[in-house]
Input
Amino acid sequence: MASDNLGELSERLRMLARTPVLLVASDYDGVVAPLVVDPMSAFPNRSTVAALRSLAELSSTHVTVVSGRSLRDLALLCRLPEEIRLVGSHGSEFDLGFAAALDSTLVTRRDELVAEVKKLGNKYDALVEEKPASVTFHFRGMDPEKQTLARDEIVRGPAGRDHIFTRTGHDILELAVIDTNKGTALDQIRRQVGAQAVLFIGDDVTDEDGFRTLRGPDVGIKVGSGPTAAQHRIADTDTVAHILALLSELRTEWLRGEGLTPIKHYSMLSDLRTAAIVSPSARIEWLCVPRVDSAAVFAQLLGGSADGYFSIADAGKAEPIGQSYRENSLVLETNYPTFTVTDYFDCSSGRTRRLAGRSDLVRVIEGSGTTVIEFAPRLDFGRVRTKLEARTDGVVVHGTSDLMVLRSPGVEWEIVDDGQHQTARATVDIGDDGIVLELRSGTGTVRPDARPEPDRRHDTDHFWTNWLGRLDLPTEKTSTVARSALTIKALSHRPTGAIVSSATTSLPEYLGGIRNWDQRYCWLREGAWAATALARLGSYAEGMSYLDWLLRVMEGRSEPERLAPVYNVTGHHLPPEADITDLAGYAGSRPVRIGNAADGQVQLDTLLQKGEPLSSEHWHLVENMVLAVSRRWTEPDHGIWEIRIPPRQHVHSKVMCWVTVDRAIAIADHFLDKPPDKWLTLRDDIATDVLERGWKPGLGSFSATYDCNELDASVLAVGLSGLLPPEDKRFQSTVDTIEHRLQQGSTVYRYTSDDGLPGREGGLNIMTSWLIDALVLVGRTEDAKALFSDLCNTVGSTGLLSTQHDPATDIALGNTPRVQAHVGLINNALNLSAGS
Output
């Protein structure tokens, strides 16, 4: 039975508004327009048209009107904007050329049918409406006795012929030569636009075919009285306008990011093999298993609740009062008024070293009260049908190639259908012993672990605090630096030594924009920065593991200069860049990408790690890097930013080639009596080339490329690398120019020139850090401290930094957490502490 509870309907609309791809469909008469005696006087409600237009103009939102009228009459009467698709004849007519495409047999049958029904129309003085594949007899305005006689004669006569299909509606009887209905039309449109949810509003008996096709998150609304398969009922067409306007407002807010969790307020869990992203309300909205670069099983972060989540909430709808990591660890605690949710990846018993196998995400609820738990995995970004099976002590996930279970002793689950997927829900009293939930990837058993949960939690906490306790932290922003160090450590892939750039993909660099990249991979440059930053804090193991990973990448490659700039954590090339069309993106920012085209670009910068004694294999790596530079340093490339335009001679890339040779020369004493003369010559040649061709007096700065006068903050590397001394007037002028032209508030833009991509982006946190370091170098320490303080104020509530920051709206942008951003913050603190 349909509900007329508008509060309940409003909540359903709120959920529907967050659907990645939404189809809004309705009947015309009795919905968009009121029912009137003269069908050709049924003009649309202006407020309804305005709401439909607003919806149709939103991204990933499709609007259609499915009517029993002929398509031509519908178009002439309603005059809806072209963004709204019209379908006539109860789903038969999708275009105006429909009649011409009918088979000749159907045309003959239709003509005979029309002629016969028109005779009856003349007999009873009734309106007969001819359509391309049907004819409609209108009873409206006739007295009841004549209606009965006419209906009986039609049913006994033309309606009783073979291959004639009859539909009954409000005061009409329609006879058609093809069997279609609004339900089949809705299904066809749903498939065409890839809609993941449908809102359908109707008032007629013929709309019931549409209501019966709805499923999962779909919403059906019946206008007026009468039996219906719709879930909800409203009174009249004025209420339709109100409902559509509300949906438009809710969807606009969601697509623009309002009501979304700000990127800066998310937290991360890690076991050094994969990572989970957790909202401030203890809702897991992102998780890829078995590795950080695998397909997601929870992807609400990049769509909506339909894309997978794992939530724990107060049954009385109380909001959380705070969230924080346990001091110096990655054990996360979310506090509600009467209970606490503790989340962590089990890092005990050597799990972090295992290349594949078990990953256990543990969730512990302690305190008092009642919680509502929802477990909604969606395999392969929701592209694989996900089925759940409730068993004693847990839930088994079916459909995945990797075994997955949720161990949950004492929890009684209800398994409900959500479209093609299933969701497990439970309402549980916490009790004195609390509730322990363990999401296990890589095993199908829900049997108890060999060790009690408190012991595993203690060991996990100790794993992180013990590592951090060995670091030599600076005096500037010590706790902030400690969290940055833990974040970089958490993004290290311990089994292989790779260091990924971020835990996420496709978080936008501008809300609603298309600059959405997959950064769950290891960029050689960024991994080197991360290893070096940790080495500066006193942890050298990550750098040595990273060098070993790079050695394995190079094995079997006879041409070291052909290294790609980015690999996955196992050292293999990335999958081709592709879009996940089923996901709407954070704040409607599409496309959602996996893979990265940077895999096929040329970048000439590389690394040289200091700290630990290097072996002969590491020395051969250094030799190969210098060889690669000698062969290719004069070539154009795509630069540090992987700009998607033809390669150019980027100043930053040349400087990094100089750095490679310079650092190789610096450590040659460990292996050789003296560095090769050709290395010294190569270093000098690169420096001369940069200084002669990169410096632009008219710009007052080094330029982005040799052949332009465009400004790019990455040229700060000329001084940060040591190619120029801090007192050199050219470097000092470059710092001043970038500060005045690319800094805005608390952030620094990398450039403002055209990069071949549409849309905008925020300021880049790593460039802000580079400017801070440059200010320290040129002796402007107080300015550096002020900008560093501003940077630290942009750090999220639990200490994470994303890729970018928008100074206009003061929001974080881009993937989170981002290694390069945390590297920059650590280097800033170290450099400022050294000068204080």
About this structure: The first strand starts at residue 22 and ends at 26. The domain at 470-835 is CATH 1.50.10.10 (Glycosyltransferase). The chain has four domains: 1-92+180-255, 111-179, 263-468, 470-835.
